[in-house]
Amino acid sequence: MIRYFTSNPASRVLCSPMLLSTFSHFSLFHMAANMYVLWSFSSSIVNILGQEQFMAVYLSAGVISNFVSYVCKVATGRYGPSLGASGAIMTVLAAVCTKIPEGRLAIIFLPMFTFTAGTALKAIIAMDTAGMILGWKFFDHAAHLGGALFGIWYITYGHELIWKNREPLVKIWHEMRTNGPKKGGGSK
Predict the structure, then answer these.
(1) Which of the chain's termini has less CB crowding within 10 Å, N or C?
(2) What would you give as a GO molecular function for this chain, any one (predicted)?
(3) Is-catalytic flag, 159?
(4) Among 21, 44, 86, 141, which one carries the catalytic annotation?
């Protein structure tokens, strides 16, 4: 588990943990908190991007947020293992908050206090920036910040730059998925 499901730039295995650590968690509470946030924002992001694009963005976000964490750890010399889906989930949260900045949000245990999605995103980015600079160790703030910045970038520019160019391939995939493969495939 430590070798493949925790990301650490000092490890012998560097690449696969960048994705696999997204699926491991420190405790049941850690997993429950991440899954609650993902559940809260997943229907919005799937409505915005579609299922296939959401899956591609989410998996890419896991790798990108871990890469940002690696860079920060190497730059500061603060090595240590990281795990969890929060970097990828921050991408989802940031993308939704960027696309729907006037959406109203609340904290689960304080539902009487509401705020806009745009305000929440600014606060989260400020907290993670401070945590990264000051070396707070409760969260992997670099992974959170990397995920948030990727989510903002993707929803603003990435869809047009990346996904639109893949649209013909995705249409073929949808046809194959719904109609099945064509029979007879011989040439004349």
Answers:
(1) C
(2) serine-type endopeptidase activity
(3) no
(4) 86
